[in-house]
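User: Last request for today: this protein with PMT, please.
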Amino acid sequence: MLSLTNKRILLGITGGIAAYKCAELTRLFTKAGAEVRVAMTRAATEFITPLTMQALSGNRVHLDLLDSEAEAAMGHIELARWADLVLIAPATADFIARMSQGQADDILTTLVLATAAPIAVAPAMNQAMWGDSGTQANVAALAQRNYHIFGPAEGEQACGDVGLGRMLEPDELANACAGLFTPGQLAGRKIVITGGPTREAIDPVRFISNHSSGKMAYALAAEAVQAGAQVVLVSGPVHLDTPEGVTRLDVESAAEMLQAAQHNVGDADVFIGVAAVADYRPELVAKEKIKKQADEMQLRLVRNPDIISEIAASGSGLLMVGFAAETENVVHNGREKLAKKNLDLLFANEATATFNSDHIEVTAISAEGEQALPAANKHLMARKMLELIAAKLKTRNT
Ligand code: PMT
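Assistant: Here's the final one, the structure of the complex with PMT:
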């Protein structure tokens, strides 16, 4: 296991059956060199005793916000400042909801708000509760605030159901936490990402465009920064805030997007084409607003440059990653685009379900084969995608 020497971990336990795994988790943390302090919700004490956690961590367990004795030993603000990392494990659906709302009505929610340390969350709940759109929206909100979401895993559940919702095993969680203290998997890499739609002008007030919201590209940009990369995001018109640490270049048309991408790929390692680029544009753009006159009018369209193909053909040695938004034969068409556009990796998705949604389900396609990635919110999927990209970069360099 990776080292956690001298790291101060605040373990927040909430009321789920997986709480019993916190005993082993604490043992692994201390074995790896970390100092552990534990805070528990009242419900958590129904599943594992504070005495057990005190014995294993070697520190008094924090249970109440208004406990004068505990506050005298180490107040909650002091505790929040003490931590190098806050891990909530197991994180119930209820606790995730309360965190996502920014509540501070017990010791653990208050610590989460008060800390400046990274926060990791290990969800654990029934598979239907995990799949519920409310839970997914809450998890997405946490991911957007840069909380690290570890798991959940798939398998048999305490209630007898089978599916996604099991808390990761203690060794997986301990490794994931240790990973947060090592340089990101994309440290030192530059990534250029295109995102959002393009707009192809018809006249000064009208254009051809599509339903891309930019959410997938922005999630990838944010997560790539978290993984240590330098990120340039060439963005079509969207209503999203620029993720922290991302250099954003706003463009409108495919021609502008191509130009901005070409200017920025020179020293890049990876190009990711998430943008839904208009394949055609009006041949002529009217200088003035076109007047309503005849009953019919024809618009002659000409092909736009294929940005990703042009960048791939420029032979710059970039790792080329594309997307394919399809309404039929998603994987088959995706595989054709991988070959036609000369890409190293492609994520094929069903277009109508993905545009503007917070979720995405994709098949990752490369020369080595296909891998179906089950539906997840776009931030969590972005992390998975970046893992695949980092692995490809690694094999390239060896
Ligand atoms: O923005 P969201 O609302 O979050 O939605 C996400 C998404 C559906 C836009 C995204 O998941 C996605 O599938 N993006 C690619 C959309 C698309 O245009 O696919 P395509 O099959 O038409 O193009 C294939 C690839 O070529 C893409 O990488 C695309 O960026 C690129 N391309 C396409 C046309 C063109 N003229 N230039 C390009 O570079």
